[in-house]
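Look over this one:
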Amino acid sequence: MSIESDRLTPAELRTLFLFESLDEGQLEWLAERGRVEQRAGGTLVYAEGEPGTCFFVLLRGAVALSRQVRGDDVEVSRTDQRGVYGGAVQAYLGDQVDQIYRNSMRAVVDSDFFVLPAEDFAYALRSWFPMPMHLLEGLFLGLRNSQAIVGERERLLALGSLSAGLTHELNNPAAAAVRATSVLRDRVAGMRHKLAMIADGRLDGSALHGLVALQEEAVARVATAPKLTPMATADAEDTLTDWLEEHGVGGAWDLAPILVGGGLDAAWLAQVKAAVGAADLEAAVRWLTYTVDTELLMREIGDAVTRISGLVDAAKQYSQLDRAPHRVVDVHDLLDATLVMFKGKIPAEVKLVREYDRGLPPVPAYAAELNQVWTNLIDNALGAMGEKGVLTVRTGRVGDQLTVEITDTGPGIPPEVRPRIFEPFFTTKPVGAGTGLGLDISYRIVVHKHHGDIRVETEPGRTTFRVLLPITEGPPDGPHDAPTT
């Protein structure tokens, strides 16, 4: 069709597939309000982010659509099909959404367009097709609301699952601390009893001072006791048991493991005998054994409390309580905190491998939301592998972007599924086992909020999700291209 004026006739409009089913009155209305505009090849028809004022229909030529990714134009489609359209396609929603251009259109060659003002396009749709408009409006807004509601549910379910694992992890050191405290109380009571027996007048002052010096040495040995192999430990306990029995100390098989655990041996016990004499050897050995056992128990309590404190710190790091939502963070701290939360969920036969590039700089980020990304990706990886496999968490750098990779040794993503993995509500899990929003949420957090990218590489036996984050501050939040798969 040749363009001879800045207007189209109703008959010319009917040749466009968008308008072919309209009646004469509707076509005349459009012809009166629309106009024909030309654009030279290489020029911009409209730009992403600008106010959406017009609806464009291609009459002749070719166009390319692009979207912004961290300041770069990424072409998403190119066509010369007559009748394709773009521009203010959501004008019918009015002030319920921001009326801006969602992408950029460029004329690839000299092109002609039928241009309709956005308010006229919106009026025509809402007046001529009220029922479809109600359906479209409900679909658009309903999907947006559903995403928000189900997204919150997804986060709550993930948090509940991780909380159960964290509770289990906290219970172990807490129970150990309670048990050690109970035993410690008995040992301290025993020490008081044995000390009374030793100091009832049978030892002179110098011998008692010597025994106290040996006690201090025993405490020092506990702090530096070497870790022995199971076989070496058994041999040392047998040797010490024989020595104690030869010197008339009863219950040697109970005392020897404690003394060996504290780093004491027969040569050291010989010093004890020399200090107190054979008559008081058993009381002195038992008193020193209580000392060693007390130190070991206090170390156990200290380790348990430290473990609890570490878990609490990890939980705070994960949830980012009392911290600014956007700040400069070390992604390794975030990854480690998330992995701590997952410890109770990682099967015994799944090996966790950390390959961190510790030379990476901190990055500006919404830390709590990045933790949600790691949670979704790690949870998917564990689900793909089942009870056995290797989970690899790797960090690195590509140009001015930091990369975080989550790799599993599961069966891979089937080719027919791969293009849909970032779609809202799409899931391959059984009914009730997933909402299909985990990757959609991750994509929106990484791309929309952090101006990064998320990609996937998959083959049987290996799937890698790669998150790219800008090391420096990105541009303001805005629309972005689709994820790369």
